[in-house]
Here is the input.
Amino acid sequence: MSKSVVHTLLLIAALYSVLPLIWLFTSATKNVGDFSTTGAFELGDWNLWSNLGDLFAEEDGVFLDWVRNSLLYAGLGAVLGALICAACGYAIAKLDFPGRRALFAVTLAGVLVPTTALALPLYLLASELRIVDTFWAVFIPLLTNPFGVYLARAYAEAAVPDEVLEASRVDGAGELRTFFTIALPMMRPGVVTVLLFQFVGIWNNFFLPLVMLTDPELFPMTLGLFQWSSRVSQFPQYSPLVITGSLLAVVPLVIAFIVLQRQWRSGLATGSVK
Here is the structure.
């Protein structure tokens, strides 16, 4: 294929990805009446600041609670989940213990299981532990990610030399110290990659909070905006609020990709080959 054809396909793919964001931005500038009088990608009378004020004032500022909850779920869950995945992947790749291959096979099988299929078993477990409708009912299940373990294992296999680990053990370092002081810094790009995937997955998580939570003050942004969007047919004034809230929900993801872009690309490239 010629370069012009490749560039054309890439341009189409880029437009396919960017146009929804452009629509989201232009729609966030409109009031209720502008949706019927302007085109999809036309700016309204610039009601963005008014929409933002209404968004944060609606229902006594519950949207701020949703923002805080999403940051807690995604921020803490991404950091702790990436650390757990890195430790599991390192153990499978570099430690010799009975059942290591079987454990890795189970991990690969876990990648194939959709998260929605686990929602009901997780709800039953949370019910037994009496943590339904609490922060922990959503937060604890988010700390496990089979794909993150697989990715960390692949990166540890390629980036952490066995000779360095042997030298650390000869010098008297235990396994935990070897992992945190030797292996983890070498796995940093891979860990950042897992962290980014964790953050995006948790930030966009919807079904698990829908099953676990009934208290609006514990909702993440995804579930809260969904509750508002279900009222749009009866109360059209919610339409600008949902669109403006959705625009704000995209901002942390864009910032995360921009900040971690270099580490993300190097982590993917280095962890895939020896």
User: Anything to note?
Assistant: Residues 267-274 have pLDDT under 50 and may be disordered. The longest helix spans residues 62-94. The chain has 15 helices and no strands. Residues 77 and 142 are 6 Å apart (CA to CA).
